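Running this now, will post back.
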Amino acid sequence: MRKIRHICSVAAAASLTGASLLYYSASAMPMGVAGGNLTIPENDEEMIYVERVIGKYLSNTDYASLEGVCVSDAFPLHDLENSQICGKDIFVIYYQETVIGVLSVMECADSYYSVFRLTDVDCIQNAFDSKANIAFCCCNGESLMFDGSNFYNTQTGNLTDYILEDDSFVRLETLDSIYGSLRQYAGNNTRGYYYCLEGTIEPVANTYKYSKGICWAASIAAKYNYEHGYYKGGFGYVDAVNVFDCVEREYGSRPTGIPDCETLGLRHFGMYDTYYKGDVSATAIVAEIANDNPVLIDLKGSNKLSHITTYHSAMICGVEYNDDDSAMYEIVDPNCSTIQQAFVATNASESSYDFKYSPDYLAEYYSWYSTYSYRPENRTIGK
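Update: finished.
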């Protein structure tokens, strides 16, 4: 029986005990002590992973020195639809007294993986300022914060109309900067070469047609809007339904996220309709981003609790390729309103085989199985 009601309303590292790091996207001092160095308990492997990876995510930001950057304790992610804790932890990242980011961490086969996003939403900042008891939750693809009375979307900061009928399984914990400054780990940052698009890209929201998500159409729409400089509410803007309807008319039947439909959608809107069955290397992505061409990708994964196979489409809009053959990808996810970040640190120059993407909603994606809309002259793709 569902206990949540919605009336109306978005890195990988091997276990750090000797195995090699596989990065994806994110001080120990006693609570209340600010500015000290990090001292992590030796047996806290997850926190060891967090302090190793956060510098990667912040390396191209104003916080690259990690001076004054702190981290909260782990908050378990609650699945409201199934009234369970779903096996992911959420960490809040701070600069002094200001919330700057959210890190989602999962463990899989004795390795940790994560996704990081910068954020400045008021709901998390207000909870920190008041040292409120909160919980992080997910439901229907939305990332939420619960303060014991209200739910807030942590992507937008907006108050939602979710009502929790039974909160007995929810663990409310105080939001505070448990661990002090991470500055001592700034030396772990491997410097690299960062490539981003020339303009600002705006995610297009995923939605449903015939009771199925159409993230592939949302990704096509986001690329089209970017290439033409269109923004939501303005002239020329297209959304996921616009793309879906055009493909349905030309395809002659109900479209899905298969190569024939995705390439048809790209072709209809005048974009590269190239397709490669598989993941591609960081150097291939660099060649695309350096030419101001975001690349669409298809991902395969599963629901964290039910283990039901799920598929998703997203877009890569930025990449940092590092001297140690690791790479950071910036991802436009139709289920998220902000850019996500994820790392791969194993042979990134050759492939993205170790790519895993675990955002702060219930799904986790472990296979990048298709690549779309790269330039035909990019000879590094397909080899």
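Helices lie at 45-57, 122-129, 215-228, 240-251, 259-268, 282-289. More later if anyone needs it.
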